[in-house]
Amino acid sequence: MPLSPEATALAAILGVVVVLWVTEALPLPVTALVGAVACVVAGVAPAEEVFRPFADPVVFLFIGSFMLAEAIRVHGLDRRLAYAVLALPWVGERPRRVMAAVAFVSALVSAFISNTATTAMMVAIVGGMLVAIEEAAARHGTGPGRRLEPAFATGLLLCVAFAASIGGLATPIGTPPNVIGLAFIRDTLGVDLSFAAWCSMGVPLVVVLTTVTVLLLSWLFPAGVVCLPGVADVVARERRALGAWTTGQRSTATAFAITVSLWMLPGMVALVAGQRHPVVVALAARCPEGVAALVGALLLFILPGGPGRRALSWPEAVRIDWGIILLYGGGMALGKLSFATGLADAIGRGLTGWLPPGSGGAALVAAAALMAVLTSEFTSNTASVNMVVPVAITLARSAGGDALTAALAATFAASLGFMLPVSTPCNAIVYGTGRVPLRSMLAAGAVLDLVGVATVTCAMLVAGGGR
């Protein structure tokens, strides 16, 4: 079946956009805008249709959650949480336990704020810890069982980057690809997954993948010592420096708690009263995730933040990543137009021929996850989800599989590029420290990519079988 003129024009535009995204010849948000403008100029669709995604409710979920994350960063709540976990008696100064604590702190923080911001914060914390560890190791000498291996620093820094990327999978707002994938699923498949429904899949995935990360990195990059003297002193000193909770921290925690409660409330009520209960329907209609995020963000401008200020000022608020919002709008526009013009169906039918005859659900889900991981190695996770999720949906439809399961697999896997510094900003930050050789990142990242594809595939098959 031949493509329509609109689909042909869109295919050419998509080809150019993908090349620009992969090569980063232009900033990613600029490329998304180029694609949207080109669709109008080429007659693919009217301007009203092309630019409608820029006003999608998901945009306001981004804005609200980004402002909450900015307030958390401004008032140091993220650092307070990090040092509180590292100070737990269970952690002590055992190398694997320290690595596990760093990994789970990174994952937990990145579930609610930017993965990049989490990595930057944790690299600073880990850097201070490594200095103390290495100074203490030098004082204790280099006898048998007392020589600290330099590779441990590499493993600890990789643990931060990998765990921060993984942690973003725990909640819908943990990383932009989650929100974009959910928007495709809602608009294309008519399925609206709640905050609680996502967490029921995302949290177990994060726990499994973070545990695997710790085991893998502690095996590849052993410390060479039984104890890491100096860690407890650094953490205790930094906790004392934080002092008592400030007014701004209490206000930010209050706004954040209210927002999370509003996100979770419909799912909690549904567990008791049923999904179709009038209260559940009313909550979902009157306080969707985007509105709940804005409620928390607006509270930040009302609640006190200390002498003479509020919890968040407007100059602080506008520092959020507006580029992600533009990238979302442009990517969603291209994705929706690919369905409207029939281009996505044509791509799906073409790719179906590459699958082995009689491929079942597992092959489809694994293919969707693998496509997303491979794409995310060479372009941003956000660009990857914009490219792969529409293809995964049409591929599943063409092969007679479960489109929802394939779309979720692609959405989760889009955040799992671990091999290269360019795969994620998290990788780039730790590589920039000069303590992570490229070959080490490639080796550990390749194994974790494969484990990630397998884990996401199994998890989505289990989730799909439970529906």
Please render the helix and strand layout as text:
Blueprint: H1 5-23, H2 28-41, H3 47-50, H4 57-74, H5 77-86, H6 95-110, H7 115-140, H8 151-167, H9 176-189, H10 195-220, H11 231-242, H12 247-273, H13 278-286, H14 289-300, E1 304-306, E2 309-310, H15 314-317, H16 322-340, H17 343-352, H18 361-378, H19 381-399, H20 403-413, H21 425-431, H22 438-465
Antiparallel strand pairs: 1-2
Walkthrough of the structure:
- With 467 residues, this protein is mainly α.
- It has a domain at 58-317.
- Helix content is 73%, strand content 1%.
- It has 22 helices and two strands.
- It is globular, with a radius of gyration of 23 Å.
- The chain starts with a helix and ends with a helix.
Number of strands: 2
The SS-based structural class is: mainly alpha
Q: Which consecutive residue ranges, at least 5 long each, have pLDDT under 50?
A: none
User: Average pLDDT, to the nearest integer?
Assistant: 84
SS element count, helices: 22
Helix content: over 70%
**What is the spatial order of strands in the main beta sheet?**
1-2
Could you say which overall geometry the principal axes of the C-alpha atoms support? globular
Please compute the radius of gyration using only Cα atoms: 23 Å
Reading the helices and strands in chain order gives HHHHHHHHHHHHHHEEHHHHHHHH
Q: How much β-strand is present in the residues?
A: under 5%
What oligomeric state best describes the polypeptide chains here?
A: single chain
- What's the N-to-C terminus distance? 35 Å
Query: What characterizes the major β-sheet?
Result: 2 strands, antiparallel
